[in-house]
UniProtKB/TrEMBL annotation:
This is DMT family transporter. GO terms for cellular component: membrane. It comes from the Bacteria. The chain crosses the membrane at residues 36-54, 66-87, 93-110, 122-138, 150-167, 179-198, 210-230, 237-257, 263-281. Residues 12-137, 150-278 form the EamA domain. Keywords: Membrane, Transmembrane, Transmembrane helix. It holds the Pfam family EamA. InterPro entries: EamA_dom, EmrE-like. SUPFAM superfamilies: Multidrug resistance efflux transporter EmrE (SSF103481).
Length: 285
């Protein structure tokens, strides 16, 4: 039993680590963000389709009513990825990832609008903590500043990610997680086809290995492992453990991109991650 727990915990930590590689890869790949997201989705879609066939998961939508919510959530996922890569390129991996990690508190504020849940006043306190963390990340609020732009893109990315989660949350009991991820990548691939004609894709050959890593390691394996781990852990526990994602990202950015975070990043980041941990522990049933 203990061995099984260690195995499951290792799986969840591996998923968190694989997903955290998006920071370094997103910053490193020298192509426009929209083009990176198209290749990421297209490659991941193929990997996920092969996996669904291998696991004999039926690749069909169960009701026509599900089509519109799936398309809308796919569009929000596309905007989430694009704005996240903008955040990484405008500022640093640390600021991009920490700004994105405001999404658990955003979900808490938005949940009563999407699902039949009551708003808890504790979220106002957590919201203030997050705002303070963001303020410390970018104290000189000047729109010319690349760090401020990075934080704003990170927050927009977090908002889109929150809406996408709240839309899909209503279908997780009806569909396999890998299948939902396949539908998402399919929708993003179709929606972003025009970027191949209007944006610079000339660096494709040299960037191909990194795009493949982003699609296979970060997206297909990382997200599928994360969904798989939810069989053994509550969403709260998974959230607490996955809040080490920005820490993994900062370490990888230091090793591969020589990015050294400032004290403001450490302090603001600690406040943001503290809210994630508090909310995860508080919401644990």
């Amino acid at each position: 039993m203990q061995n099984n727990h260690i195995q499951n915990l290792t799986g969840l930590l591996l998923a968190t680590f694989f997903i955290s590689t998006s920071g370094v890869l997103g910053k490193y790949i020298a192509m426009p963000s929209e083009v990176i997201v198209w290749f990421r989705s297209a490659f991941a879609m193929v990997f996920l389709y092969v996996f669904c066939r291998y696991k004999k998961i039926t690749v069909t939508i169960k009701s026509r009513k599900h089509l519109i919510p799936f398309i809308i959530s796919g569009i929000f996922m596309a905007i989430h990825w694009i704005t996240y890569f903008y955040a990484l390129k405008k500022s640093s991996v640390a600021i991009g990832m920490l700004s994105l990690y405001t999404f658990p508190v955003m979900i808490a504020f938005l949940e009563p609008l999407f699902l039949k849940v009551k708003f808890n006043p504790i979220y106002i306190v957590l919201g203030i903590m997050v705002l303070l963390g963001i303020y410390i990340l970018a104290p000189d609020f000047n729109l010319e500043s690349s760090n401020v732009q990075g934080v704003l893109f990170g927050l927009l990315s977090a908002l889109c990610y929150s809406i996408r989660i709240l839309i899909l949350k209503q279908y997780v009991t009806q569909y396999d997680g890998v299948l939902l991820m396949f539908f998402q990548t399919l929708i993003i691939t179709v929606c972003l086809v025009p970027v191949l004609f209007f944006m610079d894709v000339s660096g494709f050959e040299s960037q191909f290995p990194f795009l493949l890593l982003l699609a296979l390691l970060t997206t297909a394996i990382g997200h599928s492992l994360m969904v798989h781990s939810l069989q053994f852990f509550s969403v709260s526990t998974a959230s607490i453990i996955s809040s080490v994602q920005p820490i993994f990202g900062i370490i990888l950015a230091f090793l591969f991109l020589n990015e050294i975070p400032t004290w403001n990043t450490y302090l603001g980041g600690s406040l943001i991650l503290a809210t994630v941990i508090i909310e995860s522990i508080r919401s644990k049933k």
